[in-house]
Design brief:
Aldehyde Dehydrogenase, Chain A, domain 1; Aldehyde Dehydrogenase, Chain A, domain 2; 2 domains; 6-stranded mixed sheet; 16 helices
């Protein structure tokens, strides 16, 4: 397929997958395992090509970051699902109310049919393969819409999938906003979208016309909090890793930091030392990722310009050059105590800019987070377990890492997903398998049962039995 895919071609692909599902509505584990292993070989045999394609799209992304953040978690997810998928697809026993014994119950995970996955540009491999793995394990056919902002990767991934899968098993769709809109409007059996809240609303509206179930991963402004008394050097290291990896172009990157007012200046000084140690060559360091394109780069520099005009104090973390407009490379910078109405305090930043918001009391932190849209992630650094537990009970977030950042997404034994404005639904591991399955309840009636007592005409015995049942 090519980047000029038309909605008509996409419709044809969808119909082919729907027909294939009708011919094989419940593939056995051997079939699902074969598809997963083909995906595994596809990734394993083409790691270098994947690194190069993503590097080309970003105009400079360290190969180690693609390995660490995309290839490793994709392959790890595959290994986990290959280990557990056979058990996940088995019918699960369900308890039956005592009043209906000796009947039995089951929950049967049934493939939904044709699943659609819309992939963003920031992690084009992992955010395609992660849900693809569990969709395949659940027995579905899958259409994957890749971002037009990663054309080199899109061409490569499309070609590799065509080599390893029949089009009615897994197919890749490329193209711009018109194709994405048509993709969202397909009568899919489930649609998973990862991207911005603004586009997520449009995707959900398009899917609603067909009552297509959706899983939305939307991001938002994920706060990090340093509680009083926490070790500042450790917090700085972990927060900067989460913020600078992929140049902050991560949906669960720390978006802003709340810290005790007395720690503001020590944090800035420590952050400079840590940033220089992480990237000793500053903006020229090849282990520091570029901003994906001029569109995103202009947005980020616009945030800085607005903050400067409004009198915000800005502290660079690298020495020397702070930006390279031609290569869209932007050095990390701290924005100190910015006004709440600045764009960078209202929009998801998605780049190497970190606002620092000082506080005087921990109750102020809770109120600050709680009064804003619910984020995709929350990072709480605290030596006091009871205080951190209380804070988590008082706030909402899609997921939480305590005394670290990002790590909750790496756990395939836990669900990943947003809440409210940061998304809906879950995926990863068994949670993804369940998302892409219909967990169908099946009640097996026994030949011996007492339901005949409750058929009309209602006799006194039925009324007496009902009174006994209501008591117990």
């Amino acid at each position: 397929m090519t980047p000029t895919d038309s909605p008509l071609q996409m419709q044809s692909l969808f119909e082919a997958q729907r027909a294939a599902y009708a011919r094989e509505p419940f593939p056995d584990w051997a079939t699902r395992r074969d598809r997963l292993r083909r995906l595994q070989r596809m990734l394993t045999d083409n790691q270098s090509a994947i690194e190069q394609a993503i590097d080309a799209d970003f105009g400079g992304r360290p190969a180690i970051e693609t390995q660490l953040l995309e290839l490793f978690p994709s392959l790890d997810e595959l290994k986990s699902v290959l280990r557990h998928g056979r058990n996940w697809m088995k019918p699960r026993r369900a308890a039956i109310s005592k009043w209906f014994l000796p009947a039995t119950g089951q929950v049967v995970p049934q493939p939904l049919g044709v699943v659609g996955i819309i992939v963003p540009w920031n992690y084009p491999l992992f955010l395609a393969v992660g849900p693809l793995v569990t969709a395949i394990a659940a027995g579905n056919r899958t259409l994957v819409k890749l971002s037009e902002y990663t054309p080199a990767f899109g061409e490569l991934f499309s070609r590799l999938c065509a080599q390893h899968f029949a089009a009615d098993e897994v197919a890749v769709v490329l193209g711009g906003p018109d194709v994405a809109a048509a993709f969202s409007a397909l009568p899919l059996d489930h649609l998973l979208f990862t991207g911005s809240t603004t586009v997520g609303r449009k995707v959900m509206a398009a899917a609603a016309a067909n009552l297509t179930p959706v899983t939305l991963e939307l991001g938002g402004k994920s706060p990090a909090v340093i509680a009083p008394g926490y070790s500042l050097p450790h917090a700085v290291r972990r927060i900067l890793v989460g913020k600078l990896i992929n140049a902050g172009q991560t949906c669960i990157a720390p978006d802003y930091l709340l810290l005790p007012r007395a720690q503001l200046e020590p944090f800035i000084a420590t952050a400079r030392r840590v940033a220089k140690r992480m990237h000793p060559a500053g903006l020229a360091d090849r282990d520091f990722c570029s901003v994906i394109d001029s569109r995103q780069y202009t947005r980020l520099t616009g945030y800085l310009q607005q903050a400067q005009k409004r009198g915000s104090r800005i502290e660079p973390l690298f020495d020397g050059r702070q930006r390279d407009d031609a290569a869209h490379r932007l050095a990390p910078q701290l924005i100190i105590d910015p006004a709440a109405d600045l764009d960078l305090m209202r929009d998801e930043i998605f780049g190497p800019l970190l606002p620092l918001v000082p506080y005087d009391a921990i109750d102020d932190v809770i109120a600050f987070i709680a009064e804003r849209p619910r984020p995709l992630a929350l990072y709480w650094f605290d030596h006091d377990r009871s205080r951190s537990d209380a804070a988590l009970r008082a706030t909402h977030a899609g997921g939480v890492s305590v005394n670290d950042v990002l790590m909750h997404i790496a756990q395939d034994s836990m669900p990943f997903g947003g809440v409210g404005p940061s998304g809906m639904g879950h995926h990863r591991g068994r949670w993804g398998f369940n998302t892409f399955s219909k967990l169908k309840p099946v009640f097996h009636q026994s030949r011996i049962n007492a339901l005949g007592l409750f058929e009309p005409p209602y006799r006194p015995l039925a009324k007496k039995m009902l009174q006994i049942m209501k008591r117990y």
